[in-house]
């Protein structure tokens, strides 16, 4: 095995995988290498939810949001017709690699129109669209099927291989890689696709600055994971599968949104560079008695402070300091100004699905402004889901969504450096499974044209 390649891909999440698939499908003779800092993970005991083969998508809830309305900004750089064609193309690939063609939710109906009217009366903007639900269990099998396909096409896949630097000299890229604690090795390629994922966002920012690429700040979302009895949202989840709503708070006029609804799902832990945050999953075959979703407040910064990553990390670190994991609190205890205890949680009508969460007081963790925003939106949601703001509702904190700074791009997500591409969530381009995958296909197609 030599260290010279036509294309090197950094990161094996959805963007990196689908870039590689498009390359091997269109030009099988290309010599391609993929470097992934994480491991090949086992479903029963993943080393990390956010790094490893398949990236964060491997153990996500597996929702393909079949719309340009959410999940990224690709609709700003390609035509609506091209977006729709590419979206269907990628959706078909997910089905080809193991997705269920029948698990499609959320089409327009008289019921959705009625729900929309109720939402508007409560100052909620309800966004509905088609969703294909893969499920956490099937998502893992899909990414493993993709890995097998790429290996069958002689793609070299390096796991536990952390890219240190990428440099271009004399028309060729030099990629320095540290593998399993060994000394750094050097690989070369004519083109490089950076798909670092959210786990690699900080590395991406450092590398982009070192390379002299111009960056734009993307902000951070801070909030909680909400858990209720499944009956509370059954009329919505059976209709739409996922409730996607946006609310602008009365007190601060901040944007608050629902995210990643998991019907009959499980609250989970997410490890982001040693910080433990909340997340949620639902499975195609395994079900709980609860439904969970995130409520997130969007925070952007300008001056004098302009580092949303550090801000989000600081909030997460405080929650871990108090509980050594995420905290869980009943909404009624939060309103009463008292911490939740194991006994109070046990008396509640909602049994927590995350047993590792520590009962505590989220008011000691979340900033006042974000707490007010979240409480306001829960009250607004009572209009469309009575009981969602019950004293028994569980709040897990914190949940953070980090969005990498956005490098200024040319066509096809090529940076100012010829042959260097930056794609996916970690590059600040997308915010979800489907558009990250689409982004990988677009970058590969542009690379092949060049």
Automatic annotation (TrEMBL):
Does the keyword section mention Flavoprotein? yes
Any idea where the FAD-dependent protein C-terminal domain is? Answer: 222-400
Q: Which domain of life is it from?
A: Bacteria
Q: Where are the transmembrane segments?
A: none
Query: Which InterPro entries has this protein been placed in?
Result: FAD-binding_protein, FAD-dep_OxRdtase_2_FAD-bd, FAD-depend_C, FAD/NAD-bd_sf
Which organism is the protein's source?
A: candidate division KSB3 bacterium
**Which molecular-function annotations from GO does this UniProt entry contain?**
oxidoreductase activity
Its keywords, alphabetically, are: Flavoprotein, Oxidoreductase
Where is each FAD-dependent oxidoreductase 2 FAD-binding domain found? 6-40
Q: What is this protein called?
A: FAD-dependent oxidoreductase
- Asked if the record carries the keyword Flavoprotein, the reply is yes
């Amino acid at each position: 095995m030599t260290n010279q390649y036509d294309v090197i891909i950094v990161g094996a999440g959805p963007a990196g995988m689908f870039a590689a698939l498009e390359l091997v499908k269109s030009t099988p003779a290309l010599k391609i290498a993929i470097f992934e800092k994480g491991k090949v993970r086992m479903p029963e005991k993943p080393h990390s939810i956010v790094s490893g083969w398949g990236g964060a998508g491997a153990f996500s809830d597996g929702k393909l949001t079949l719309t340009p309305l959410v999940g990224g900004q690709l609709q700003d750089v390609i035509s609506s017709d091209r977006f729709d064609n590419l979206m269907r193309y990628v959706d078909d690939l997910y089905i080809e690699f193991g997705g269920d063609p029948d698990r499609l939710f959320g089409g327009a109906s008289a019921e959705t129109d009625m729900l929309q009217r109720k939402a508007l009366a409560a100052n909620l903007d309800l966004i509905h669209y088609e969703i294909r639900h893969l499920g956490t269990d099937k998502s893992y099998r899909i990414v493993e099927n993709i890995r097998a396909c790429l290996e069958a096409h002689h793609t070299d896949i390096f796991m536990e291989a952390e890219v240190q630097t990428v440099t271009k000299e004399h028309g060729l890229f030099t990629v320095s890689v540290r593998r399993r604690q060994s000394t750094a090795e050097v690989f070369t390629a004519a083109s490089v696709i950076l798909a670092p994922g959210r786990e690699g966002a900080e590395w991406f920012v450092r590398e982009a600055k070192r390379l002299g690429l111009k960056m734009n700040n993307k902000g951070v979302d801070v909030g909680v994971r909400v858990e209720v009895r499944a009956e509370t949202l059954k009329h919505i989840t059976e209709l739409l599968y996922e409730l996607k709503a946006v609310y602008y708070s009365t007190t601060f006029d901040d944007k608050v949104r629902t995210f990643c609804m998991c019907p009959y799902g499980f609250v989970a832990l997410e490890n982001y560079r040693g910080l433990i945050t909340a997340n949620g999953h639902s499975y195609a075959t395994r079900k709980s008695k609860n439904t969970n979703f995130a409520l997130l407040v969007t925070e952007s910064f300008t001056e004098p402070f302009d580092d949303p990553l550090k801000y989000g990390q600081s909030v997460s670190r405080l929650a871990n300091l108090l509980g050594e994991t995420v905290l869980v609190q009943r909404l009624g205890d939060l309103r009463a100004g008292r911490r939740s205890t194991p006994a109070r949680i046990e008396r509640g009508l909602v049994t927590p699905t995350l047993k590792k969460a520590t009962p505590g007081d989220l008011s000691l963790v979340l900033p006042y402004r974000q707490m007010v925003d979240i409480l306001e939106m829960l009250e607004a949601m009572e209009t469309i889901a009575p009981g969602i703001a019950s004293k028994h509702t569980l709040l897990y904190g914190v949940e953070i969504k980090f969005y990498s700074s956005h490098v200024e791009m040319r066509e096809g997500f090529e940076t100012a450096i010829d042959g260097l591409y930056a794609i996916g969530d970690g590059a600040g381009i997308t915010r979800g499974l489907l558009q990250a995958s689409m982004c990988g296909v677009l970058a590969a197609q542009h690379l092949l044209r060049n």
